[in-house]
Design a protein that fits this description.
alpha+beta; single chain; 26% strand; 27 strands; 588 residues; five-stranded mixed β-sheet; eight-stranded mixed β-sheet; globular; 36% helix
Length: 588
Amino acid sequence: MDENKYTFENEEYRRAYWNTCSRVMAQAVKRLWPEAKLADGGADDEGWHYDIFTADTVTADDLEKIEAEMKKICKERIQTEDLELSKADALEIMKDEPFKQELINDMPEGAAVKFCRQGDFTDMLEGPHLNSTGRVKANAFRLNDSSASYWKGDAKRESLQRIYGIAFPKKDELEEWLERQEEARRRDHRRIGKEMRLFMTDDLVGRGLPMFLPRGYTIWRELENYIRDKEIRNGYQHVLTPCIGTVNLYKTSGHWDHYKDNMFPEMVVDDESYVLRPMNCPHHMMIYASRPRSYRDLPLRIGEIAHDFRYEASGTLKGIERGRHFCQNDAHLFVTPEQIKDEISNVCDMILDTYKDFGITDYRCVLSLRDPDDKEKYHDDDEMWNKAESALREVLRELNIDFTEEIGEAAFYGPKLDVNVQPAVGAEYTLSTCQLDFCLPAKFDLKYIDADGKEQQPVVLHRAILGSLDRFMAYLIEETMGNFPTWLAPVQAKILTVTDSAAYFAESVRSMLENAGVRAEIDGRNETIGKKIRESTMEKDAYMLVVGERDVENNTVSVRTRAGEDLGAMSPEDFREKIIEEIRTHAR
């Protein structure tokens, strides 16, 4: 390995560093718990991990013990030595490690097995590593988490403990990382969602199945209304389709062959097999095919806020950002080849206009292409793929949209434009997408009659502006830390009474605001006004209207923002006009 550049800008050095940390951790585990069995580990995209089998769950105290032992191993400056053994010799060395033996037995006959010897500890080798444990800075690593995992990702196999770690060449780099982690914790939509009573989960309902509470559903409903109204203004027609479909439907679409592992198991009813739908395109294809179509009918834009279900691995579940049930802001545009450019342009305009409304500025566009060598993941039709990829690339260039290209990120049926956002903390992810599809129209034998009276096959654009409403909401929670713009805030005006004598006036103010479409509540509890203000601020209410005896006499409300700004006294009517304008203009 070239170690001329000892910074993490050198990807090979970074992976070597984390691989070494992984083995140092495994060695520490074996020193502390000799009976533990090692499974597998190494560097990943965010540090390293190692799966071990123990009788007990790894606790926070255990992580501290492992860290302390790792520091000892680093200070011992143990030299590492590469070994290459036959399968028979490798099995002998790993005779007390059943998981390692299984990995060795899985190798082809005659294969050489690579090991790294680290003093009295020997482990199987995969990827680059450092030549000494002393190269790992003992004050610049941290074991940051542990979770359950399954051997080889198979839920029917042994349950393991996965320990995660992070390390850097310098202590200050670790400290900067820890600060970013603390910021991520402060912004975590799961924590904020619980504090604001937006949504909840319960294992009795099921993992990855969040439930929106009244305040959270208020935000969800506003997002739904926002995007549906925008689509209607852009010529979309909305439909409602079932949350299940027959297995034959997904065999026709190709999802059964290419996406089955991400779907819930089939259910047999009256000798017919059904599945919960992971996406909506097959249903929309059937709607298009339900009657003859003419070129005059195109473009046909079918939209749906659709409930979908995917079997996500338990370790990937994350609140409403990634669940097993979610609602897509989905649409399918059936177009002629000549309409592709204009329709993609309209979709891009909708995406950018939406991002402007929500103040999203940190994003990039990616042209996601297939991996031509992967014949299992992607529909096997080189001519179709070359045509679709060239068409989408050409349109993006003609529209002067800056984009990068990424191999292996396409949908199984076609290339796509992904718009990836960079959140305040954490890695970027896709919110919006527009996919060009020549495949499904052929599978469903979709047709339209052209101007010459001949049958032609339409092209389909799959697009989602908000992506899933759930993920979009999670993004907004973390970006705003729950301080939603007034038009989205669950409670737009909280009326706080100072005395019981102000109750009637407070109710009249609430009624006036609600009649104007403002979400208003009263806090008339027998508590101090200071406590009411603090609690309203914690709940991120957009405005607080304090009413006491003087306000009743003067027909005013004392207005405060959740940021602590005192706007002074104003008439209820003046406040109503102010907040209505904020809501109307989607002011941020």
